[in-house]
Amino acid sequence: MIELLWDVMMKKNIFNVKRILLLFCLFSSSSYAQDYYVCNNGSDGNSGTSPYEPWATFDYAMSKFGKLNAGESILFCRGGTFTSSYPGLFNQNCTQDVPCTIADYIPPNIAPTDAKLPIIKSSGTNGVLNFQDGGPADHDEGYVVRNLSLKGNGTGNGVFLYNDVDFVTIDGLIINGFDIGMYSAGANAPNMGANQINENIVLKNSVITNNKGQGWLGGCKDCVIDHNKFINNGFAKKKFNHNIYIAGDYNIGITVSNNTLYKSAIVDGKCYGVSLVVHGVIKDLTIKNNTIYEDIGAAHQSCWGIAVDPGYDHKEESFSNVVIADNKIINVGNLGIGCASCTDLQILNNTITHSQDFGFVGIKVPDRPEDTVKSDRIEITGNYIDLLDANNRGKQGIVIPDTGNINIEANEVYVSR
């Protein structure tokens, strides 16, 4: 009996010790998640660990980025203005589950109602946020950038991802006045553990505007572009510039959803470039619930709405398992939705309206010459197309060759004079 009581007491004590150790570990780990503060009234000689002792400059703060522990943050004061020389940002301590953060804070001397986003300006031709390591690609991951206003001078990138950067969330940014707003680029030859692909990239709740080349450029794997506004991007030239330009090889699982796209490649007062274009080799692409529009009289015929098709002469392109659904496309160029070299394609429940005074096709597959892969297994269902053709320009609802595995049903097309 005594031995039994002793055994029960020992087990209970061991359980209590384990519980205390667990709590100690939890509190100890969180104690290392330090926030660092940066504000114009600070000094780079300060500790940076308190909003009352902030650092002063962007570049000094970013020089500490590579040494952050997982879960730590560098925060810029609202109402402040900073300048970036485009330092490389690379940290292998950060993880997808415990990311490192670059964001905002409200300093003690500013009322919340007056607390405008921190402004970070480009000081040269490169841009502001540069997530990459130099030389061969090394894998890094786990970054969150939130609530900043990035201002360019017509060159460089607002946000640049290169050399296998994964699990990056860009949330609540204003990206204004660069060549490219956000660029998910390729990689150098990889070191062990890297695969040269940017994966799990999220751009959300942001405004990408007045970037002269592209609003978004590049490809990735398992990425989301969601709830953003793309306005007046691509105005440097009539061709090859867009609000969103998804491109590259080895792209799998890209979702573009709930965005507003307006004023794509505006030159001489008119939109000339496709607002949302996709080239390259892509599998599992979803374009859903976006609104794409232009003003009456402000769209050239080349100002298409959505185009998923080959765009390069030097390589084969194809697109498989493509869903284009629930989008609103209003008064764009002479094509609303187009695809080519698309297999397992679904174009579902889109609303397309057009009142520009030139010819127009609501949905066309293929919309241009195809590569070796020919469009097949196509479903076009539930789309609503309303066309005003007062001057009899020959507007059409759906143009699809009557060959292959195609299902077209329950679409509504109206043409009025």
Overall body shape: elongated
For the report, how would you describe the main beta sheet?
Answer: 13 strands, parallel
Q: What structural class is derived from the secondary structure elements? A: mainly beta
Portion of residues within helices: under 10%
Strand order of the largest sheet: 1-2-5-8-11-14-17-20-25-28-31-34-37
For the residues shown, what is the average pLDDT? 92
Number of strands: 38
Over the alpha carbons, how many angstroms does the gyration radius reach? 26 Å
What do these coordinates show?
- This protein has 417 residues and is mostly beta strands.
- It is 9% helix and 42% strand.
- It has two helices and 38 strands.
- The strands form four sheets. Strands 1-2-5-8-11-14-17-20-25-28-31-34-37 form a 13-stranded parallel beta sheet. A twelve-stranded parallel beta sheet has the order 3-6-9-12-15-18-21-26-29-32-35-38, with no helix packed on it. Strands 4-7-10-13-16-19-24-27-30-33-36 form an eleven-stranded parallel beta sheet, with no helix packed on it.
- A hairpin with a 2-residue loop joins β22 and β23.
- The chain is elongated.
- It starts with a helix and ends with a strand.
- The N terminus is likely disordered.
